[in-house]
Amino acid sequence: MTPTYGATRHGLICGYSFEGGAPGQALDLAQALLWLQGPRAPGDFVWLHFNLSDAAAEAWIRKHLPVAPEFFEALHEGSRSTRIEDADGTLVAVVNDVAYEFSFDPAEIETLWVHVSPHLALTARLHPLRTIDVLRQAVRDGLRFASSLAFLNRLLHDQGDVLVRIVRQATVQVDSVEDRLLQGRLQRQRAELGTLRRVLVRLQRLLAPEPGALFRLLRRPPAWVNQDDLDDLRQATEEFSLVIRDAAELQERIRLLQEEIAAQVGEQTNKSVYTLTVVTVLALPINIVAGLLGMNVGGVPLAEDPWGFWVIAAVVVTFTVLAGWWTRRRRDD
């Protein structure tokens, strides 16, 4: 039986059992409970993936599955930073991932909760996520796991691959913005860079594993974790660190581009203000003279003088030249 996406009761999206290193076999909730109650060989486990937007999912998990209380605490606490903790011999992980249709929107970063014990791997999410769906498809295609921790390691590796692609796509966008900046086109570059920087900052803040919890786990792992799986977990976290470092370097590059764009915009603004100032200063003498001579009162000088116009014009030109000379001197200074 191949369960359809999101069609199972109690929020189950998919379920698979892994026995003897063979590919996963699809099962439903009833079959999963029977499997967990029966005899199990070392390394065999069942994977259940739930949709928490179904109100019955959490209640069913609490009632029927041997899940540590720390898992439910992680579901409802405010902090969603990526971490892996040892909870009385089981592993509780909070993994942040991107939405399936990710479009560089900070709001499209969601959380996946994971509970891993020797014979049970439980994952739960509120919205469709790219990494877990990639892993689900790989399991349907015949991917095998030697243990439940190997499943968690594969999940972390897949998430690292998704993050690498995001950083690579962001780098391409930054390269494009930089090329347009060199060409002198500044239409939407500041907005694009701001969006990219917000996404990278949130990715770095949420995806970087908490070093304290990870250090404690690697130093004192549960007794059922073998050394090979522990080395794979250490490698997965090191890959995360490298990708987070690349994201931090890209943030610094974006910041420098934003500063360069701000400097160019400020220079253009200064040029515009200077041009407006020059025009205002040059027009000031003629506006003053026109205002004085245009008053409808008696005693306007040179009103009867045949050379009056040329005298006034000479005065206006003289003061305009003086104003232009003063403005140019101020600019040179």
Structure characterization notes:
With 333 residues, the chain is an alpha+beta fold. The chain is built from nine helices and seven strands. It has a seven-stranded mixed sheet with strand order 2-1-3-7-6-5-4, with helices on both faces. Strand 6 and strand 7 (120-125) form a beta hairpin. The radius of gyration is 34 Å and the shape is rod-shaped.
Spans of at least 5 consecutive residues whose pLDDT stays below 50 are 1-7
**Fraction of residues in helix:** 55-70%
Overall number of domains: 2
- Order of strands side by side in the largest beta sheet? 2-1-3-7-6-5-4
What is this structure's SSE topology?
Blueprint: E1 12-18, E2 25-26, H1 29-37, E3 45-51, H2 55-64, H3 69-76, E4 83-87, E5 90-98, E6 109-117, E7 120-125, H4 130-140, H5 148-182, H6 189-207, H7 211-219, H8 227-293, H9 308-332
Parallel strand pairs: 3-7
Antiparallel strand pairs: 1-2, 1-3, 4-5, 5-6, 6-7
Membrane topology: Multi-pass membrane protein
Subcellular location: Cell membrane
Coiled coil: 233-267
